Amino acid sequence: MFTTQEYIARRAGLKKLVGEGLILLTGNDEVGINFEDNIYPFRQDSTFLYFFGIQTFGLTAIIDLDNDEEIIFGDDPSIDHIVFSGPIESLESQARKVGVSAVKSVSELSEYLGGAVSKGKKVHFLPPYRAEHSVKLSALLHVAIPKLEEHSSVELIKAIVKLRTKKSAAEVLEIEKALNITVEMQYRAMEVAKPALKESDVFGEVSKIALAKGVGTSFPPIVTINGQILHNHYRGNELSEGDMLLCDCGGEVASGYAGDLTRTFPIAKKFSATQKEVYDIMYASYRTAVEMLRPGQLFLDVHLAAAEKIVEGLITLGLMKGDPKKAVAEGAHTMFFQCGLGHLLGLDVHDMENLGEQYVGYTDTLKKRTDFGFRSLRLGRALEEGMVLTVEPGIYFIPELIDLRKKEGKFQEFIDYEELEKYRDFGGIRVEDVFLITSNGAQILGNRLPTSATEIEEFMVSHKRL
Amino acid sequence: MFTTQEYIARRAGLKKLVGEGLILLTGNDEVGINFEDNIYPFRQDSTFLYFFGIQTFGLTAIIDLDNDEEIIFGDDPSIDHIVFSGPIESLESQARKVGVSAVKSVSELSEYLGGAVSKGKKVHFLPPYRAEHSVKLSALLHVAIPKLEEHSSVELIKAIVKLRTKKSAAEVLEIEKALNITVEMQYRAMEVAKPALKESDVFGEVSKIALAKGVGTSFPPIVTINGQILHNHYRGNELSEGDMLLCDCGGEVASGYAGDLTRTFPIAKKFSATQKEVYDIMYASYRTAVEMLRPGQLFLDVHLAAAEKIVEGLITLGLMKGDPKKAVAEGAHTMFFQCGLGHLLGLDVHDMENLGEQYVGYTDTLKKRTDFGFRSLRLGRALEEGMVLTVEPGIYFIPELIDLRKKEGKFQEFIDYEELEKYRDFGGIRVEDVFLITSNGAQILGNRLPTSATEIEEFMVSHKRL
């Protein structure tokens, strides 16, 4: 997938940016589901993958910046392991393919690190996102688990973000592979969904394609008639004629890159008049956002423009009122659009989210907002050539939120609560595509899917692909 | 699925067996795949499920035996959580359904435990199988992570094993549901497999059924033309006419109970003469084992009898020689049958494996053997009414193992290494069914699947179900 030279260049970039000390990158281990040997599908840590590319558990890598030394610590399997899991390529051979010549046993890691620390070297490591990292780092570095995050290296985080933000041509190809699997998943969902099936039947079909054509899904697929529940993983409802099905899913390819696309479509093949009105508002918001994508454009402003477009539309429906700009400034749009417009995508579906959204999606001067509706906007900073990101506006009617805000007496200037009652059970809709920022604009990635209401209805009736 | 009374009775049984002190049971948390919020499908800890039945992350339960107090520690979701994940039933209401009236916030847990410990109460807890348990238990009990296992409670382990070993009628029904999904998975694999498809295509079909009809797979399905690799998770090979496909898979139902069945079938619809010869030997071993199942029967002896039957068969093929009993006594059968004949099944596909195989499958006087071919025999002790277990003999030709043993000069009295070379690339076959031990014998669970070579060939040709 990637050449030895590309891995060497990535590490050279990292070394230049971090400068001095020692970089410690922990690969992921296997995680037991209900006992140690019944494991979840193994997923290598994305940063480890980016710099070292090896898809095996139990590895740790060290880059000693002062001695310009790169070592992978890991152990080759025993005969028992070969009997149960088959022969695997030696670690030394795998390491050579990514340009690393030094391989040592895990048993040497602690002493190696101890030696470096006793010489006063700074150890750069990342904040843990799995308990296994905490246990491992705490034992290796003699730092108490609750203190690990504050001892992690901001310099290392910033360097990784800088490198991983700009996708290479080879990375974009991997993302497109993942998206093309995802396009197949979306088409399949639209092809099979029909009254009397359950959400879980469509979920099964969508998952099957990810498992058969890639290495699985890049996140647990959301397949729901209750699109207003943003990360809905219940899937026991039966589909009925009047329902819309929201399908948000992604395939993952062997290299680890993720797809992520959403479509919302009517089980009856045609949207009802009300459904179409709301869909068109969301689609207008999507168009507005997409047209703004170019290097230098603050993504926070794209989010706000997309929100304003939604407010404008809801004013024509009579659900909102007043000045759209002012409504967005006061956060009234968060009644219907509670989440972020998009996020970076790459080796992670929310790319680099484990490094901290402030570092990934914002800057030293642009702080991530913590108020409702903005704290889930993962990307705010100016777009750059080579970024890959999603655009995913949505309109969601959440009964619990409506009741809460009404009780609080909030947004009275902008919301017609009486009119809103009629939409209480509307549900939620979203559309999501993935874009690459180019030198002067943006380019959609992956094969085409029906996107406008008309295109979706045409596909639902004809099953003819674009 | 289970009545409030059944949960109360299970805990009453536990209290009686453990006697005094305080029982601390940690539920499972969510595990990030590549960042904290991108989570693997949540799976509750099986012991927590058995006694408390609640399928939510972030819970801990305490049973204070001295005060006869049962408390679940957990927190209800915030509005942010409701927006993203939908409304969920309050913890109090869920607790009431399993007969627990005391619910406290997680923030109170540390103080509650501290108070109990300062009064000199013994805290019974289980050995951790996920790093999250280690981190949680270490912080709560002020025990260093490497010391947790030795501080865990053998009394608690033994009490749980005693209770969970004997399945209630309601539990057997749940296992049958899981098995019937698994039967559908097996039929689907046989129906769709054909030349030029990839293993991953069949894997996708099999997984789809588990996802659509249950909550997923009870372990990562093995779908491979290289059946000799016992836990093979590579699935990129193309199926060809001469191949046999080994499919070992299980569905899991909402209550957490597991299915686990294996079939090996010819892509060409008919076995070759050599394939059929080896299949028949394995099937004879299966029949021998099944006929021996009854209360009081040492399962280690069933394993040995099944191994002997394999040796007898391989002698007729000319691959082995000498006295079958002696061959098994000296371990020569482990050249072809490297794993255990079966394991308990219930909430876990290897039931209670996290509690330690010595406690689950053996006794104080019957120690688990540690030599090759026996260290993966998870069950050795006498069978009891109400046990549910698998029977899964197999014959595997592992080139790396053949080469190793030949080089070591082992088993020369029993193996014809020259003849064996002809079977070097045969692959591996297995059949696996699940049985309930009854008062005077055993009963197969779940709908019927083709099992003998003839039945399998008939299904492959006709697609007519039994």
Structure in words:
- Chains A, B: Keywords: Aminopeptidase, Hydrolase, Manganese, Metal-binding, Protease.
- Chains A, B: Pfam families: AMP_N (PF05195), Peptidase_M24 (PF00557).
- Chains A, B: GO terms for molecular function: aminopeptidase activity.
- Chains A, B: It catalyses: Release of any N-terminal amino acid, including proline, that is linked to proline, even from a dipeptide or tripeptide.
- Chains A, B: Its EC number is 3.4.11.9.
- The structure is a homodimer.
- Chain A has 17 helices and 15 strands.
- Chain A is α+β, with helices and mostly antiparallel strands and about 475 residues long.
- The first copy, chain A, starts with a helix and ends with a helix.
- A five-stranded mixed sheet of chain A has the order 4-3-2-1-5, with helices on both faces. Chain A has a three-stranded antiparallel sheet with strand order 7-8-10.
- Chain A folds into two domains: about 5-165, Creatinase/prolidase N-terminal domain (Creatine Amidinohydrolase, Chain A, domain 1), CATH 3.40.350; about 170-460, Creatinase/methionine aminopeptidase superfamily (Creatine Amidinohydrolase), CATH 3.90.230.10.
- Chains A and B meet through helix 3, helix 6, helix 10 and helix 15 of A and helix 3, helix 6, helix 10 and helix 15 of B.
Question: Strand arrangement, largest sheet of chain A?
Answer: 4-3-2-1-5
The number of helices of chain A is 17
Question: Which segments of chain A are poorly predicted (pLDDT under 50) over 5 or more consecutive residues?
Answer: none
Give the assembly state of these chains: homodimer
Q: What is the first-to-last residue Cα distance of chain A?
A: 29 Å
